[in-house]
Specification:
- By secondary structure, this protein is mainly α.
- The chain contains six helices and three strands; from the N terminus they run H-H-H-H-E-H-E-E-H.
- Strand 2 and strand 3 form a beta hairpin.
Length: about 170
């Protein structure tokens, strides 16, 4: 698990806790957290995507500032400081935590390269379809809101690179 993913997980836990305590989290904060998660998944598949890691870091920093301020108001200064320490620890954690692995999902292609991308406001369906068409990969919208993109290994990688570039220019 990468440092960005550990940081995302801690921030996600904090957001969940704050919501359970009655905090009304603005949609842009939730959107930034979801976008960061999507880009983390892109980085897992294509780590060479330049700029994606810095975009994730910026998104997480925005979320962190808001959530820590909200934590101080809702949970108190001492508890907010503990959360800040957890976030810092997630960044400096040297220990490698084994991944739990992907869960089996029926209907995914065997022997073909593929990636699943969550369709959202930041990553709209139309953009994904356009990029897939340009790269010559096939798509299938799945019931859980993900778009399955599949095809030749190099074409799927090229699709991911173009998506990362597009998201970088938009963000």
């Amino acid at each position: 698990m990468s440092g960005l993913e550990r940081r995302w997980r801690v921030l996600s836990d904090l957001l969940t806790l704050l919501r359970s305590r009655g905090a009304d989290i603005p949609p842009d904060v939730v959107r930034d957290l979801r976008s960061a998660r999507s880009l983390i998944e892109v980085l897992k598949i294509s780590p060479e995507c330049e700029g994606a890691a810095s975009t994730v870091d910026q998104l997480l920093t925005n979320v962190e500032f808001y959530l820590l301020a909200e934590a101080e108001m809702r949970l108190g200064r001492r508890e907010a400081k503990r959360w800040e320490e957890r976030i810092s620890a997630s960044l400096s954690e040297a220990e490698v935590i084994p991944e739990t692995g992907m869960r089996f999902r029926p209907g995914l292609p065997r022997g073909e390269h593929w990636v699943r991308i969550r369709v959202s406001d930041e990553i709209p369906f139309d953009l994904l379809e356009e990029l897939a068409s340009r790269e010559g990969v096939s798509t299938e919208l799945q019931p859980d809101g993900f778009l399955l993109v599949r095809g030749d290994k190099e074409k799927v990688k090229s699709f991911i690179r173009r998506l990362a570039e597009e998201l970088k220019t938009r963000g």
